[in-house]
Amino acid sequence: MSRTPHLAEIPQKEVEIELESGRVIAVDEETEVLEVRSKDGELELRVELTEAGPVLRMNAVRMEIAAEEAVHVSAPKIELKSTEETQISSDGDVRVEGEMIWLN
Question: Can you give the residue range of the structural domain that contains 34?
């Protein structure tokens, strides 16, 4: 039985693996970037390892996040933008807190 080599054992600086779906996973050791591209070559997922930490970029038809307990997002600035409609719903209370809350 042959074994798949560990990436560190492959001498190239960039490794590409084509999946059955036609997607390609590319890892560039020099720039420390991992990309997933569609069969048409469109970028779907990019993980760039920077000195400040990982940077993630996703282009998807739909994104879903599910958690048993909670979803927590923390950043100095958070922006949400939609071109059609934005919905926020809860089976419990909805709280909006801030120094100034602008509506319209």
Answer: 7-58
